[in-house]
Amino acid sequence: MPDPSRIPQFHVVKSTKFTEDDGDDIKLYRTRGRNRGFLVVFSYIEFPNNMEPYRHGVDVDCKNLKYLFNELGFKVLSYQDLTRSETLDTLKFLKRVIVDTECVFVVVSSHGYELTGSSDNDIRCHDGKLIRISEIVDHFNNKNFPALRDIPKVFIFQLCRGSDEDYLP
C-alpha cells in the first residue's frame, strides 16, 4: 500500500490565454466550451480467490486522474471492480449519459494479457472473466456511438500486455 505522505500532490494551473496554429497540416479539435468532455475510468483492483494479485496504488492513480480532469472542466464517471457483464452494461449505458460533449477520455486499469498473433489484448474483470480491448473501443466507434462522430476519443489502457518487462508487441 502506498504511503499517503509520499504521494505527490499537484495543483492544476488553468490557462488564461490560448495560442492556436490553424495551419492546414493538423486538424484542431476545439475543446473550450461548457461541455469540455468526459473522463470515464474503469479500474479493477481485486479479483476472486486471489486469482490475480491486489493492485496496490490504483486507487491513488484514479483519484489523481479524476482530480486532474475535474480541474480541466471534464465530467468524470468512475467505475471500480465491475464484472465483465457489468462492464458491458456500463459501456451501453454510457450512450445515454455522454451527450453534447467535445471529447472523451477512457481509462482502463487492470491486469492484461497478450493475445498471441493479435494486436488485441485481454483485460481481467473483477469476476475473473476477460474482456478484449477491442470490445471496449468498439463501443465508442461511429457505428455504435453516433453521438461521438467527429469527437476525439482517447483511450488509455494501464495494464500489462505481455510477460516481458516493458514489452511492446
TrEMBL record:
UniProt key word Hydrolase: yes
Coiled-coil stretches: none
Pfam family, one: Peptidase_C14
GO aspect biological process, one term: apoptotic process
Stored InterPro entries: Caspase-like_dom_sf (IPR029030), Pept_C14 (IPR002398), Pept_C14_caspase (IPR011600), Pept_C14_p20 (IPR001309), Pept_C14A (IPR015917)
Domain Caspase family p20: 35-164
Record key words, sorted: Apoptosis, Hydrolase, Protease
Gene Ontology terms, MF aspect: cysteine-type endopeptidase activity
Protein family: Belongs to the peptidase C14A family.
Name of the molecule in the record: Nedd2-like caspase
Lineage, opening ranks: Eukaryota, Metazoa, Ecdysozoa, Arthropoda, Hexapoda
